[in-house]
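REVIEWER CHECKLIST
Item 1: Sequence provided? yes
Item 2: Single chain? yes
Item 3: Sequence as submitted:
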Amino acid sequence: MKVLLATSKPFALQAVAGIQDIIETAGHTFVKLESYTDKSQILEAVKDVSAVIIRSDIIDKNIIDAAPDLKVIVRAGAGYDNVDLAAATASGVCVMNTPGQNANAVAELVIGMMIYMQRNQFDGTVGRELSERRLGLYAFGNVAKMVAKIARGFSMPVYAYSPTLTHDDLRKEGEYGVIEAYSSKELFENSNFVSLHMPLLEETRYCVDYELLSYMSEDGVLINSARKELVVEDDIIRIMEERPLFQYITDVMPDKHDEFVSKFPERYFSTPKKSGAQTTDANINAGLAAAEQIVAFFKRGDDRYRVN
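Item 4: Structure as written out by the authors:
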């Protein structure tokens, strides 16, 4: 089988070497398309491949249709809204992700951005500490669990609300020391910081709006390391205009980035490009997991991380 590594944002060199070794040791052919700049390049590259490993690369119907031999796509990471699942299913293509492999890297970035903003972007003025301030986690998957674990080390009370977990499920997560919230309203009411960790689904699209934000404290902080479409940007701008201490921190640059920068230069921060999984460690973890999943899929039909 021919396996393509297609990444406009390349993996670390160690990760690429590891992926290649796993694929070739299993008897498959490994090819790569890195740092590509035009869709035509990936359309050409997929013509004769059986499997594709991607990161945040867009895989739409056109690309799937251009790959008649394609059997499996693995997204090296947790989110998979960059893949057209309906088109993949219609073509008999299995789509998998690698849950948990990037979790610690994203969690460390969340905490790092919180510290950076609470210390006024290290401009030398008097800032604030995280200790004893309340953190709310909206959804409680792999990344949120790691954020909870780190935050507890800062003596932060941690609340969690997950619309996809039952109350019994949350209570079973005792090792993380979280306090259960029974609704999104309760979560926002009880948190100084709220960190978003839900996937982008129709039911989560634009779920963080003015009403929900208004339940937070006057000096509330919203952190988004997930997807920009989870929030209503105009509503965040409105709440920041009304509350001169409110902050917005994000690892997914908003469409209205320039407006945020011009209006709230000291209370807004966005990474220039999604950076949560941009560590050598996360690259290796997710990349090797993706390669192992492809080998297992072709060897014994293992699709335990299938998402379509």
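Item 5: Key structural point noted by reviewer: The mean pLDDT is 95.
Item 6: Recommendation: ____
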